[in-house]
Amino acid sequence: MKVAIGLMFVFTLAFSACTDHSTSPPGGKRVFHTSFERPSDTAGWWGISSASLTLDPAPRCGRRGLKVYGGCIQPSAMLTLGPFESDGYYRFAVWARVLNDHCVGWSDIVLAERGTDIYRNNAVKITVKETRWIYFSPDSIVFCPAGNALELQLSTGGYAGPGGMVIDGLAIYKVDRE
Fold first, then answer.
1. Alpha carbon distance 155, 112 (integer Å)
2. Is the pTM of this model over 0.70?
């Protein structure tokens, strides 16, 4: 019995390890989550590798985060999820911060249907400006039709020079249309 109670306690801590209890995550079914604890957590990403893991985690998000650097070629990193078998609406939540006040350009995180113009259609974008960790959970949703995929794009830096950000506790949810 003590073992079962101990396992439940450990599971509860692990499940809530990457949450900010002053904010609530978006509802719905979680289809993707990572807090970048293992090198395998970078599998499937374009533009990053296990060398991008850093000992700079967000609050209550384990021991590591993901550091992303960029310049004028955007996006700096990208993850494709899908294709999905049915139509769906999606949103995301993530902890993020810029590396320092001296980073030039911008740091954006965008969730979009693959193949769309991310600045005009069917996309959710946040801009990261703070050097302290901020929890982002935008209310906007992205529609992804059956047979297509979602892209999560991380862009940092710009034409004027390099930039960088760290993300952690990334989750993508399938939600009901609001």
1. 13
2. yes
